[in-house]
Design brief:
It is a single chain. The protein has 132 residues and is an all-alpha fold. It contains 5 helices and no strands. The longest helix is centred in the C-terminal third of the chain and has 34 residues.
Length: 132
């Protein structure tokens, strides 16, 4: 937006894009999974400023999954706490209440799908290194 405000942007007449809204849960989660995979692919390398975040996310997400499987009630409480924290965060950022509630409701499922995508990206990276 900063560049667009400062300079004219010229787009090729051959450029095409397809927008897919995510008003249903399934496409939303599929997109979150893809975003996690792409995030790992883009930032899961030494020297990148987000590399420590990617590196820390893997064991944290694994521990959260293991905890949720071993203690399902605690997993549900953690998801509800994450949703509440997400709602409060959005409200603190002066988002409208309905938007803040939507964010809070979706932050836990997004986190699970995004984390699965990170693991998928890690698997793809490992698999490509192991292939001759």
């Amino acid at each position: 937006r900063t560049i667009a405000a400062r300079d004219r942007i010229h787009i090729s007449p051959h450029f095409a894009s397809l927008y897919r809204n995510r008003e249903a849960l399934r496409p939303f989660l599929k997109h979150a999974l893809h975003r996690g995979t792409v995030f790992f692919d883009g930032f899961g390398r030494h020297g990148n400023r987000f590399f420590p975040v990617v590196l820390a996310s893997l064991p944290i997400s694994f521990a959260a999954l293991a905890l949720g499987v071993r203690h399902p009630r605690l997993g549900v409480r953690a998801a509800l706490g994450l949703s509440g924290a997400g709602t409060l965060f959005a409200l603190a950022r002066r988002r409208p209440p309905a938007e803040a509630l939507s964010f809070g409701i979706l932050v836990a499922p997004f986190s699970v799908a995004f984390s699965a995508g990170l693991w998928h990206g890690a698997w793809l990276a490992l698999r490509s290194r192991l292939r001759p």
